Amino acid sequence: MRTVGVDLAASPKHTAVAVIEWSGDAARVVELAMPADDARIADLVVGADRIGVDAPFGWPDDFVDFVVAHHRGGLEAGRRLDEIESRRPLAYRLTDRVVVANGWGRPLSVSADQIAHVAFRAAGLITDLGVADRVNGWAVEAYPAAALKKWDLPSRGYKGIGNRAQLARLTEALATAAPWLELGAHREQMIVDDNAFDAVITALIARAAELSRTHLPDSSDRAVTSREGWIHVPDCALSELV
User: Fold this and answer.
1) In whole angstroms, what is the distance from residue 110 CA to residue 10 CA?
2) Same domain for 81 and 39
3) Distance between CA atoms of 140 and 231, rounded to whole angstroms?
4) Where are the beta strands (DSSP E) in 50-138?
5) φ, ψ for residue 108 (rounded to 5)?
6) Chain mean position to CA 124
7) Residues 162, 73: one domain?
8) 178 in the same domain as 164
9) Going along 54-179, which residue ranges are E strands?
10) How many other CB atoms sit within 10 Å of the CB of residue 188?
């Protein structure tokens, strides 16, 4: 089996792609590419059983309706948008709220934070890759912070040049927690670049999704999540991926 993790950024320069091959009770990172434009990503996912993409797959339904209504001059009065609670449904998707409610993390708002630029790129990428199912398709939406928390690994404080020491410790902690995962020469890249590290975590999330070991939405929420996207959070330990 082969899984691919894409830590998608607005710019190819900061986009990393990890490819993991699985065999029996072992796994090996066979490629860790950065930078990566959409054409490079398309090449690396050929033959993959499952892909994880660290990027939102859609926007909140309420936000889409709000923008369309405003654009067409049909926004109703009295929405009290001076109140944060009135704006919250515009900023956060159902899956974001589920992640927060379960204590798995706090995803950025796809409509109100800079991650919107990543979402623009993600929309084009998953369309180019032919991914029609935004809930549980060939490519799944990943959120490394939630997976790290579920796997009892530090999920914050390792991003950026100023946190290289913490990133190095986190990479070693991953290697200790998953001795069956061969990082090889890619370990050095993970130690110095959090995008590379997140790409590997995203490929592990793709493995969990392929094993049907991630949380999925209730059937009553399927229609909404088919438009907004769904974050796959593992419901298994790291050791259960092999």
Assistant:
1) 13
2) no
3) 7
4) 50-53
5) -65, 155
6) 16
7) no
8) yes
9) 139-142
10) 14
Q: What domain count does the chain have?
A: 2
Six-digit token string for 197? 């590290």
Provide the domain limits for residue 26. Answer: 2-58+95-241
Provide the residue type at 213 as one letter.
R
Q: What is the pLDDT along the chain (242 residues), one digit of tens a residue?
A: 999 999 999 999 999 999 999 999 999 999 999 999 999 999 999 999 999 999 999 999 999 999 999 999 888 887 888 888 889 999 999 999 999 999 999 999 999 998 999 999 999 999 999 999 999 999 999 999 999 999 999 999 999 999 999 999 999 999 999 999 999 999 999 999 999 999 999 999 999 999 999 999 999 999 999 999 999 999 999 999 99
Residue type, 188: E
Same domain, yes or no: 111 and 86: no
Alpha carbons 126 and 174: distance in angstroms, whole number: 29
Query: What kind and span of H or E run contains 210?
Result: helix 194-210
**Bridge partners for 19 per DSSP:** 4, 31
For residue 234, the 8-state DSSP code is: B
Distance (Å, rounded) from C-alpha 133 to C-alpha 212?
15
Beta bridge partners of 5: 18, 52
- What lies within 8 Å, CB to CB, of 111 at 6+ separation is 59, 60, 63, 90, 91
Instruction: Let me know whether 136 and 237 are in one domain.
Output: yes
Whether residue 141 is found in the same domain as residue 79? no
User: In whole angstroms, what is the distance from residue 96 CA to residue 205 CA?
Assistant: 17
Domain with 184 in it: what CATH number? 3.30.420.10
